[in-house]
Design a protein that fits this description.
This protein is mainly α. It has one domain: Orthogonal Bundle (ABC transporter involved in vitamin B12 uptake, BtuC), CATH 1.10.3470. It contains 13 helices and 2 strands.
Amino acid sequence: MSQNTKKHHEPLIHIVKRDDMVWWQAWGIRLAAIVLGVLLIGIVSAVLTGESFFEVYGIMFRGVFGRIFEGKTSMLWKFGQDTVILLCLGLAVAPAFKMKFWNCGAEGQALIGGLAAMFCMIQFGGKLPEWMLVPLVIVSSIIAGAIWGLIPAIFKARWNTNETLFTLMMNYVATQIIAYYVYIVGGGSNVINPVETGALPVIGKSQYLLNILIVAALTVAMHVYLKYSKQGYEITVVGESQNTARYIGINVKKVVLRTMMLSGAVCGIAGMLLVAGTDHSINKDTVGGQGFTAIMVAWLGQFNPFVMVLMSALIIFLRTGAAKVADSNMLNSSFADISVGLVILMLVGCEFFIQYSVRLRRAKKGVEA
């Protein structure tokens, strides 16, 4: 049979790019992915532990909120603290990622911000009155984080370096600086005793309330900045197309530098809240690796600060609750990370169905099989 007479076989499956999906349909798919992921966690947990499906979720709830129905709220406040710190880091990376500047250095920027706070608390504690020291701690943390974020932006704008690798490597630099500082200040003990001078004031009945209020205000401010300000508009345009941005007169290099300073500054606030707000000390694990999780929070929240609140709360609930299930049943400590990863995998996978539709080949009438 000649090549010209060979039959053309149409593929069985076609993957077609969708037009823009209505927002409520897209979020409906994401919500279904979350529910499916949470159900799978319950099923896997029940199989591994021998507990009933509902008992697993009971253990998770008690592991996160404790005896909240008996008026015990300490664990609820801790849940709020963990949520807002993750949210703060997510808010920090959101402008950079929306601009398509892949800032993977939130961890290092937060650590440097925390280091600046710790330095001021130790060096100026007892030498300055509290009403001067606390603002100094806050401002120094913001400036230190902004500078640490500005460094890779300068190299990107000037020499077009790879920002992903650059910011990742700066995490390690920050970690080692912290380790060296702790070793020197701690007298070789690798521990800095809690420092109370320059610490953020406690309001209400919990030391976490002020942190929660600060990040709540920051969430609203970031929403307004990204959605309604001129700078937020420029970030969106640069993220969509740098050539278009240049064509309409936007200084792309200026936007990159400014946005990364903002990203680093907000990370510095997160570090300050951890050091001056709660721990009153610092070590290389102060941020706890949450900088990378914050990237997922920003991306899964579609850079919407209010949606990112829900994503942060969900991840903290799953991680804390799954850790409690693991402790109660002597499972490996990695079980918590696996549980969170399962839900994130579901959310990442659902984005495919939001962007594309899968169509099967249609049989053509009058054509022999």
